Amino acid sequence: MQLSLGELRERLHGKLGGDGIGLLATLLALLALGLGFIELSDEVHERETQHFDERVLLALRQPGNPEEPLGPLWLAEAARDVTALGSVSVLTLVVGAVGGFLILVRRWRTLALVVGSTLGGAVVNALLKSLFSRPRPTVVPHLTSVLTESFPSGHAMLSAIVYLTLGALLAQLVERRWLQAYLVGVALTLTLLIGLTRVYLGVHYPTDVLGGWMAGLGWALLSAVVARAVRRRSPGLREEARGDTAPS
Length: 248
What we know:
This protein is mainly alpha-helical. It has helices spanning 5-45, 50-59, 73-83, 88-104, 108-132, 154-171, 177-200, 206-233, 235-242, and strands spanning 61-62, 65-69. The radius of gyration is 21 Å and the shape is globular.
């Protein structure tokens, strides 16, 4: 007997439930991101992406003058402003501000999840950079200063971790789906723009940014799975997620 797609979906929903299907989708996304990152990092290590990476960077500069980026004069300054949103200093301020709010409303467990996800992601990024030790681009001059290795992009990875984690956290505080989609969409847009500015400013290859996005999204999803598991075992964390706690 053949089942239609709708009947199959209903049976899966009945066996797994809505939460089970969501968890399965998250795990499949994690698997895809992990395999994709491994494949990309192997290509980068073998320098098979080098020609493509350098062509993209050169395409973003004036022909015959790699010191001048394409676009109006204000665009490079705007790119530096946007890229700062993914810097360690700005992300630390953002996490600190959110952490202060969580302390004021006494959401200690949520605070631990946010700080743990952020610090853990920063450590993983540092380890990956040290492992691959890819030099920064030299085919074009840098339009902003850099200090660490190139792959994966720390700005792309850490902005994905911080903004997506905070976007998902805020989305739990609203019930309407369009508001949830808006919050997650803003987080995704910020992450996308920050990564693109790293390429435009010549401080990262496109594959650095792609690797950072993949690793950051994967870490954010892994943190969500861990938070879900902890929440199921912690009545206090479930109360915090529902907003049942309040300052005394």
